[in-house]
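Dear Dr. L.,

I hope this message finds you well. Following up on our conversation about the binding site, I have prepared a predicted three-dimensional model of the protein together with zinc ion. For your records, I am including the exact sequence and ligand specification that went into the calculation, followed by the structure tokens. Please feel free to forward this to your student if that is useful.
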Amino acid sequence: MSTLTLREPKYQELKNRLSQIRDLEAAASVLNWDQTTYMPTGGAYARGRQIATLKEFAHEKFTDPAIGQLLEDLRPYENSLSYDSTEASLIRITRRDYDRAVRVPSEFMAKFCQHQAVSYEAWVKAKSVKDFSSVQPYLERTLDLSRELASFFPYQHIADPLIDFADEGMTVSILRPLFSQLRQKLLPIVEAITSAPLIEDSCLYQHYPKQHQLNFGRTVIERIGYDFQRGRQDETPHPFTSSFSIGDVRITTRVYEENFTEALFSTVHEVGHALYEQGIALELEGTPLAEGTSSGIHESQSRLWENMVGRSRGFWECFYPQLQGIFLKQLSRTSISEFYRAINRVAKSCIRTDADEVTYNLHVMIRFDLELAMLEGELAVSDLPDAWNERYKTDLGIVPADDSEGVMQDVHWYGEMIGGMFQGYTLGNLIAPQIYEAAVKFDPEITVAIERGNFTLLHKWLKQNIYQYGRKYTANELIRRVTGADLSIDPFINYIQDKYSEIYKIKLATYATKN
Ligand code: ZN
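The resulting structure of the complex is given below.
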């Protein structure tokens, strides 16, 4: 504990105020978790109001000029203390949050939130009857409001402030060239893989009783390091992770009895998010530092566990005998090699959330480019479905059967905003192999240990190098500290080439360099 904490009452006052705000936010999250898991449907209307009330209180307390004054008074310490210290980080990060929060008028936020709620309802209906035209006016309004939100901030590109909310420090000028490089490399790789004979994966689509799936999933995530003393697992239609404190980080799961992969891999994905939140240093509890630093880093942790570990050969060397033992009837005639190939099958498809790790980023980049085009005024909402289908044809060689499978498949634009919604997914996919490479370079035993069912080496390394810091460092700072380099597409491309060259028996390196 530095001398500042002991001597400076203003720092204590700031911490006390921030801790109360965190409590209000955590209470709102508990209400939200309850709404999605156990609340009877009759509670929906009142619950919406209750959550809004708590959030409004939290916002009012945070934008109180007294907080601004405290930050001003503490500014000298921010520079005199070490950048890495908890105290300097707390002042620095809180100032960024505060400056952002006071720029947006609360009447605007109330108006936008109200619109998001009705737009979401309109989307649910429009999606079920496959009618984009009925949700179009709502989306047009969302575009206007998203542009207005951006206008409260200084920017180079109108999407920059919206991207910054989720992935601080990332801008269109960084992401556009990065993504376009990635797309150029990926398109020929996807083409080469999908021209090869299709992998047989019918073993995954048999009847897998729900309780057995849940039991197996629990064994896996406990072994990985998810702490059930500080978390729990429940069922919901759309899996998510929510954190109420470092000591209470919950995940949800959905199970399809006719599809083995859905529950397991989405559970491991959510556990990746949860390990991050459970691994934050306890001294950050009750402060704005006690959460993941950006959507890209968060997603990198879930994808690292889901894909790089969960879909690796080594992981199944450890777990496949056990899985076969539980599902003897389904898997006794499937070898580990057949199973490993089946869970890594690559196919062009219309739905982002079902996509394999090779094609996934193409789905994301389509959305990212369309978002930018709409915000720039280059693409009208009325032309969005055609633009969407055109890009799917170019990048994935398929056209969605209807707009429900196409432009209306994701909730993001309809329930939140246009801009900043998708880049985090691809950033996560890029950051995960860059971090994993650094971990294995530090300790090559990590991969061998995984084959033996020992995940502690990797978990400990991630905790020490990523999790414990919470929001102390931005994504760019963290990547540089951990890997010694800036964010790059190379580790991802190398990972995909190595893994899928072996699975598909093609020399993918020759395809990726073609462009
Ligand atoms: Zn995720």
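In brief: Residues 269, 273, 299, 302 surround zinc ion (CB under 6 Å).

With kind regards,
A. P.
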